[in-house]
Automatic annotation (TrEMBL):
It comes from Cyanobium gracile UHCC 0281. This is Plastid lipid-associated protein/fibrillin conserved domain-containing protein. It comes from the Bacteria.
């Protein structure tokens, strides 16, 4: 069982007032896109979500031990069709009390069976228009510990994007015991 829009909207109101309490450590993992809601809608965008699930849309977050400085994470946003994968690589960082996961992608890659077909550097975004996810809530129970609110022990993450849409990801199998 995963949360519905109404429940997530209530959690979003609470996170705006009190913060979500999510830390970088809670975000580390491979997240598979499960549902999306258009701005202002309580009904999931069934076609868009089904298409993105069919393309194995995934958000991967890992600690960044590079030279970026500060508390950053490596990010990969990707879709896959068979052996063909389109991926955007970059960095993100938590900012503010809520917090926001502010990110930018610096590299685009097209891979076939793990081999790079095309690789391009991407220009940095305008600092005032950087994309972000406003983190709302997550379910990160330990093994066998269901979330009291949803009754599920599967990990999930909910956030609102810069464009106003709401997204819900599920933690991929094997990532629950990071």
């Amino acid at each position: 069982m995963i949360p519905e829009a109404q429940w997530l909207l209530e959690r979003e109101r609470r996170s705006r007032r009190q913060g979500s309490g999510l830390s970088e450590a809670a975000l580390i993992g491979s997240w598979r896109l499960e549902r999306i809601w258009s701005k202002g809608s309580l009904r999931p965008a069934a076609f868009g979500a089904a298409l993105l699930r069919g393309l194995a849309a995934r958000l991967q977050l890992a600690p960044d031990h590079g030279e970026e400085g500060g508390e950053t994470m490596r990010m990969v946003n990707s879709v896959r069709l068979g052996a063909l994968e389109l991926r955007f690589d970059g960095v993100g960082r938590l900012q503010g009390r809520r917090p926001l996961l502010v990110f930018s992608f610096d590299r685009l890659r097209l891979l076939l069976g793990g081999r790079v077909l095309i690789e391009r550097a991407l220009p940095p975004p305008d600092p005032l228009r950087r994309p972000f996810f406003a983190l709302i809530a997550a379910n990160l129970p330990g093994p066998g510990e269901p979330d009291p609110a949803t009754g599920t022990s599967q990990g999930w993450l909910a956030a609102r994007g810069r464009g106003g849409g709401l997204a819900l990801w599920r933690l991929e199998a094997g990532e629950e015991t990071k």
